[in-house]
Amino acid sequence: MLPLEGRKRRFGDRKDGFRVRNIEPMNRIEPFVMPEKNDAWVLFEDTMDITHVQEFVRERRRTDMPDLTMYHVLFAALVRAISQVPQINRFSIGHNIYARNELKFAMVVKKGMGFDADRTIIMPRFHLDATLPEVKEAIEKEVNAVDMEAKNVKEGKKTAFDLLEIALGKIPTPVLRFVFFLLRHMDHHGLLPKALTDLSPFHSSVFITNMGSFGMGSVYHHVYNFGTLSVFGALGKKQIVYVPQKDGSVRKKVMINLKFVVDERITDGFVFGQGIHEALMCFMHPEKLMERPEKVIQDTID
């Protein structure tokens, strides 16, 4: 099930989204008050107890999901949150608000562990009612393609995103400046070819980076002015915390910090709070993600 699946495009809609026509007056004028995304950043932060998540991941690795990671659980939790709070899958461009018609995430992966190892970006797609195993499968399909490329570097194999990066990087600076001026103008009016937005991580529902994988804390990462990305999340390194209990004992907990930067123009802070709360609750109780949601809520945009 995809966002607004089966809905037909109307005048004012885009290839990548449907125009939201029932927004409140304040939300209507916000894109004019804050024309750029860097005008409209809002920062969210939370620290989570992942002791249970770790136990869940270890148990599943021993049984039916040998390669499961907390990264998979986080992605599944975000998919589940969007299935319940669909407004966070919107974007603002051209002074209008749109509901995205797909669920596409973006993440950076390294083609090896060395300092000189290349990196690329994978962009798995998900259905709104996806379970944790299905989310894991979609991510692994993208990662495996990169792994195969890494094993065949000598043959010069590249992902489509890599080829686009290389092609753009070879353009002389004055011409490249004009190319991006043209791309921004086309995107502003919804004229970018779907082939380009499909390859662009800047046209994703959510971008996630795992800073903890190389021993760093989470950061507030900007959402790019270019494109339609509205949510960027960063996962930090694990920390051991000893928490005093009421009976005088001390309990060991594993904590992790997660930070989000969002574009406030797409919906109000209460809705963002509900969405992030839903994601964190699902992340800390991953058993829920093994089953499909009882109900998928589609965005109401008319």
Quick take:
It is built from 8 helices and 9 strands. The chain is α+β, with helices and mostly antiparallel strands and 302 residues long. The strands form 2 sheets. Strands 2-9-8-7-5-6 form a 6-stranded mixed β-sheet, covered by helices on one side.
Describe the protein in words:
The protein is built from 8 helices and 9 strands. With 302 residues, it is of the alpha+beta class. Helix content is 34%, strand content 21%. The protein has helices at residues 25-33, 51-62, 70-84, 132-151, 160-169, 173-188, 194-199, 269-284, and strands at residues 17-19, 41-49, 90-93, 96-100, 105-110, 119-122, 206-210, 231-244, 250-263. Strand 8 (231-244) and strand 9 (250-263) form a beta hairpin. The protein has a 6-stranded mixed β-sheet, covered by helices on one side. Strands 1-4-3 form a 3-stranded antiparallel β-sheet, with no helix packed on it. The model has no long low-confidence stretch (mean pLDDT 89). The longest helix has 20 residues, at 132-151. Helix 3 (70-84) packs across helix 4 (132-151) and helix 3 packs across helix 8.
